[in-house]
Amino acid sequence: MILAIDPGKKAGWAAYTQGEYQGSATIDGDSVKAVSSMIDYWQPDTLVLEDQFFRPRQLKGIKTLLRRRFIWEVLAEHLGVESIEIVEASKWQAHFRVRPGDKLAIQKLARTLTGNEVEPDEADAILIGEWFISEQQRREVFG
Fold first, then answer.
1. Whose CA is closest to 66, among 85, 49, 48, 52?
2. Could you tell me the residue ranges of all domains in the chain?
């Protein structure tokens, strides 16, 4: 079971069982209770978190961004998640050939993959999960 996360204020999540999409939505990424409940409900073997990226003009918000990711990591470890994988946004975006920050293209692709209307942060989580699964499959084939 894989739980893919875009760890923002409005945290996007997408769940996968045996490589198959199970569902997605957003939750309050600042709420320890909401994050804990999400991890406890899905009981993932692997939590895939998007790494935080910073622009020089965003230095003021680094502490908040890191705290949000830290909440996910600490609770996942505490709740027994076997593996926590951190992925750079540029990797999954390059895989899907979408430009960084092109939320409309990302949403459209996630909608095509799932057949559902999705929110922007939810779409990021879906593509993070899809990328991670494709990487696992690639590693199984090519080593």
1. 52
2. 2-142
Q: What is residue 19's DSSP assignment? A: T
Alpha-carbon distances of 87 from 31, 115, 131, 132, rounded to whole Å: 22, 25, 10, 9
Q: Could you read off the pLDDT of 72-120 as tens digits, one per residue? A: 999 999 999 999 999 999 999 999 999 988 999 999 999 999 999 999 9
Pick the CATH number of 2-142 from 2.60.40.1180, 3.40.50.300, 3.30.420.10, 3.10.450.50: 3.30.420.10
Three-state secondary structure readout of 52-108: CCCCHHHHHHHHHHHHHHHHHHHHHHHCCCCEEEEECHHHHHHHCCCCCCCHHHHHH
Cα distances from 134 to residues 43, 47, 138, in angstroms, run: 21, 15, 6
Contact, 4 vs 129, CB < 8 A? Answer: yes
